[in-house]
Amino acid sequence: xxxxxxxxxxxxxxxxxxxxxxxxxxxxxxxxxxxxxxxxxxxxxxxxxxxxxxxxxxxxxxxxxxxxxxxxxxxxxxxxxxxxxxxxxxxxxxxxxxxxxxxxxxxxxxxxxxxxxxxxxxxxxxxxxxxxxxxxxxxxxxxxxxxxxxxxxxxxxxxxxxxxxxxxxxxxxxxxxxxxxxxxxxxxxxxxxxxxxxxxxxxxxxxxxxxxxxxxxxxxxxxxxxxxxxxxxxxxxxxxxxxxxxxxxx
Length: 250
Fold this sequence. Notes:
single chain, alpha+beta
């Protein structure tokens, strides 16, 4: 019995040795795990940035009406919003570029100290849209037209700028990023005393520029008489991306 037990152990040891002998000494593998796997070569990250003048202005605006009843508030807001929409369209904003972003009907309450409870004093209707202005030069004129159309109910939250088709700018930024990556890799190779080979890995990461909100615009009442058009300055946007490149070492 003892002899057969020893034979069994011997067979297990022989199988283990045979399995290990099949692994190359330079690439030890246990199961599917490569113990010597590591990144090789010169890994760098290049950055490219291009400044561009925006050609789209996105205006967030709407109407806010408060009355004693829901019906009164909704009717007042609807009439004012119709005038605002008409002002947008009359000034060249396409209907497809106007999108509802927010609509709500809320109770307005206050604390009654005598009754020691909240009481409803009215209802507030808010209707907000975004309007994409493709002719930035008309942004100030459109803001003024909206303010006049909506009167005291007008709310203009913000204005942001963007580029309708940034593909050409990304192409230029991509060229700059690759050149930046190559320059860094060549310097590292020179410092390390090695010869740089061809790229073996390339990965791109695009950085989308955030919208610009120069200031918040709040319209309390339509200006009388009308002042000069509201000044709007789009400035510039930074279009940038990063590229990670791995170069082989010859």
